[in-house]
Design goal:
This protein is an alpha/beta fold. The protein has 22 helices and 18 strands. A six-stranded mixed beta sheet has the order 5-6-7-3-8-9, with helices on both faces. A six-stranded mixed beta sheet has the order 14-15-16-12-17-18, sandwiched between helices. Helix 17 (about 465-480) links the parallel strand 15 and strand 16 (about 480-485).
Length: about 625
Amino acid sequence: MISLNNIKLMRGTLTLLDEVNLVLHKGHRIGIIGRNGCGKTSLLKVLAGEISLENGEIVMSGSIRCSIMAQETPNSQRLAVDFVIDAHKEYRAIEQAMKQAEFSGDDDRLASLHSNMENIQGYDIKNRAEQLLSGLGFHANQFKNLVDSFSGGWRVRLNLAAALMCPSDLLMFDEPTNHLDLEATVWLEQWLQRYLGTVLVISHDRTFLDSVIDHVISFENRKLNTYTGNFSDYERLRSEKMAAQQAMYEKQQRRRADIENFVRRFRYKESKAKQAQSRLKELSRMKEIAPAYADSSFQFQFPGLKIVPPFPMQIKSLTIGFDVPLVNEIDLTVRGDTRIGLLGYNGSGKSTLLKVLSGQMVALDGEIIEANKLRVGYYAQHQVDELDQSTTPMKMFQKMAQESGVVETEQKTRNFLGGFAFQGSRVEERISIFSGGEKARLALAKIVWQKPNLLLLDEPTNHLDLEMVHALTIALQKYEGAMIVISHDRHLLANTVEEFYSIHLGIFAEFKGDLQDYENWLAQQSKLNSKYYRESEKPAPASKLRLDKKEQRQLGAAKREKVAPLKKLERSLEAAIDRSQIELQRIESKLTDESIYYEENKAFLRQLLLEQGLLKTELLETEEKWLEVHEQLSRI
C-alpha cells in the first residue's frame, strides 16, 4: 500500500498538486490521466524518489520493490542482453559474489550463493531477457549488439525490457507504447496481464489502457480523483458528470451529431460488413462518451475540400527498398474515399511505402500515377524534427501563407492555432522551447493547414495526449479525402479506417478481417515461431545432414550472393550513422555555450538549430534504412 498524505507538488512556480490525499492499494492497475503539463510524469518521479515534494509525505511499505521505465538511455558499450540483465541487481550481486567465492575457494559460501541463485531463478535469466527482447521486436541476431548501436526508439525499447526484467511489486511506465509497433504493443499488454504486482501507467493509447488497467487517477484542478474501472469506464463516468452541466449541452450535441454521421457512413458499406459491424460497436460507445471531451482545448477539423480526385493515386507493380528490394509487386488503386490501415511488423516496409508514395523516396521499380489535382499531406516523426526551431508558430504559419499566396488575418491564424491549444502568448514563443507533444501538435497543424486530399500518416499519435488523440480521431472521421495510416493505436484505426492491408515477408496484400482478427493472427504467428525454434533445436535427421558437397557449395554460393550486397549496404549505413552522431555531438556542444544565445549571435544560432534539425532527420532516416536492411538479413 502507498499513501499520499497532504502532498503539494510544484514545477518551478506552477502548482501541480495541492493538499492531495490518496491511497494506492496493492495489486491495482492504475492509469494516470490528465492533460499535457498537468504533472503526470512528475507524480511518477516523486513516487520513484527522483524529485521531492514541496509539502506532505508519501508513505510506502518498506518491502515494496519499485521499477520505473527510464526515459533516457546512457551511452553504453554493454551488449543489449547484458543491459537488460543488469536491471536485475540482485542477480548481478550474487553473480559477483560467486566469482569472489570461487576465487577465494570458499566452498560453503559458494554453496549458499548457488542456493540464492536458484531461489531467484537466476540460471534462467538469460533466456528470460531474450524473451523480453524478442517480444519487444528485437531479432535474435540483435541481442548481442551494443546499446550504443541502437537508435533512440530502440533504446526506449531496451529501457522497457530492463524495467520488466527488474524484480518489482510496483511497475511504473510513462508512455511505454510510444515507440512500439502494434505487434509489440499487443505483446506488452499480454505480459502486463500476467504481472501480479501494482501498475502505474501514463499512456495516450486508450485500447492499451482498457486492456491493462482497473482504476484511473485523473488530474483535475490540482487534485487527484480516483475512478474504478478501465479507461472506457472512466470516460463514461466523467461523461455523465459533465453531461449534468447544462452549459455543455449544445457542444455535446454537435459532437454526437458528428459521430452519428460517421456511423451512418460505415453502416452501408456492404463489402466491409464485418469491419463495419466492429466499428459500429466502437462508434456507438464513442457517442456515449462524447461529452467527456466537450470542454477539450483541442477543437480542430480538416477544411472542406473543393476537389477530391476520384482516383488520387494508382500504384502498379511497385517495388520498394534500399538498393535491395524490401517489398515487391505492390498494386493498389487509391480511390477518393479510400481509408486504409497499414499493418505489419516493425521493419517490414510500411514506413518506406509511405515515404515512396509521398515522394520522400524513389521506388526501385514500378509506377505511381498521381491525379492532376493531388495534394498529399504526409506526417511522420521526422516532420517534427524539421520544424524551424528558431521561429514561432505565428511566424511559421504567416510565412506559409505568404509563400502560398494566401491572405489570412492574424486573428484567423490565432483561431486556427487555438484549435491545437496554442493560445495567447504561446503563438509567439520559440518552437525550440516546446515539448515533444507540442511540436507534434504543431507539425500536425501544418498538415491540416495545407488542405491535403490524400493523407499519409505514420504513427500520428506519438507524443500526443489522450485528449488530442481523441480530437484527431474526430477530425479524421470528418475528413473528406483519402488516407493511409500506420498506427499502433487500435482505437484510432478502428474508428477512422475502412480496410486493412498488411506487409508480411515482403508481400503486400489486403487483410480480410478486423483488428481482433489481426491480433488472433499475431497470436498464431507467435505459436508457429515458438514451434519453429523448438524444432530447430532438435537434431536434424541423418538424411538432412547428408547433403553432397556440390549441393553444399551451391547453397553457400547462393546465400553469399544474396547476403553480400546487403552486408555492404549495412556497413555503409552504419558509417553514415556514426558520421551523423559525431556531427550532432559537435553542434550540441556548441549549443551549451551561453554566448551563442547573445543577440549578436542570433543568425549563427538559427543556422545551428537548422543544421541540428536536418541532421536529426537524416539520422532517423538512415537508422530506418539500417533497420530494414537488418530485417532482410535476418530472414536469409
